[in-house]
Amino acid sequence: MRCQALSIRLALVFMATLSLMAGAFAAEPKETVIYAFQGQSDGDKPRGLVADAAGNLYGTAQGGTPIANAGVVYKLSPPAKPSGSWTFDVLYTFQGGVDGYAPVGSLTFDGVGNLYGVTAGGGSSNCHAGCGTVFELSPPSLPGGSWTKNQLYAFQGGPSDGDLPESGVVFSIQKGNLFGTTYLGGNGTCTNGGCGTVFELTPPSNGSVPWTETVLYSFQGGADGGNPTSPVIPDFVGNLYGETSSGGDADNGTIFELVVPSQPGAAWTKEVYSFDGGDGGGGPAGGLTGHGGMLYGTTLVGGTGFSGTAFQMSLVNGKPKETVLHDFTLNELNYSSPEYGVVFDSAGNLYGAAAAGDCGGCYGVVFMLRLPSKPGGRWDYIGLYGFGDGSDGGNPSSGVIVLNDALYGTTLFGGDFSQCDGGCGVVYSITAQ
Asked: How many structural domains are present in the chain?
């Protein structure tokens, strides 16, 4: 595999795990559906979760009020007693059109409790079904009040702007600006309208809306990569790291770094590591996690098992070095195509989910990769839970988050079958019994 020079400052990449877990599962895991979507005003097909300090979960779902059917943002509050039920509340229902359509990706918090996310469609009418939006939801000032939604930006598409944001946004810890990616748009020459962009949103000094958008980079679809489907993560000095699903030296995707310009107004510079599509994997899509000065992620294809990989990216003598931690295959609970990335617990173990494969009638799996006992040793794969496409959920629609000694995630299907073919999807937890 040929690597372009990638001067990534991995020692400064900050740990992207949402929260920590005491350690690996020591007993047989137990899956619990904490909410089954009904496919009505509560939505269906949930995607992605984020948690606050009190243990409440927040996410997005498709569907919603039948008139709009444009998606919702919801909150799940934990029960006061262990045997109780979680409380589900819709925080906002999108109306389509200029308001936005189809919230996707994970939400993110700022320091005062506001939520930020993206919709794949709606906003500007320059693109088919709209070019997408970035939104803010602010909590009510009094208990029981409604959350307030502000549209921070509506993408315009075309060669000068992005189109179709497919992942959430993140905050810069230096400036309080938002950063994200769009799958299409920009001045690249990919089919269907550009090769995608990396963008920055800057808040106005008076606290109003809209925010000011700057396209930091337009992918060209060649060696530089194209069509990013996951968010970027910043390091402690503001450099950005992310993935493209296509392009690179072998057209099997890239990991890229955007380096903060040394002078205000200067261009961000981009450097690339290319996946080979063979033993090193190809088609990264789930996003990166920074931990211990290295980057971790997954690929959809390639590897010796031909069904994707989990990888680690480090620097050796100033050059990027990829280490495959696990090759996914089609056997037992070892599902193929892990498309949602991985997260850490406090013991250094990795967790993730895969939505497809063959495990005796299962429809997706949550897995663990156990940290080797010695540096350079083997990471052991453990299939924690295989979904049955029934009341327990089916086909994970996101990775997992680690919170209070449990894993939480979402599935596209399963749960309640009365309103949706194949079920409307669930939010689940996995704990050690």
From this structure: 1
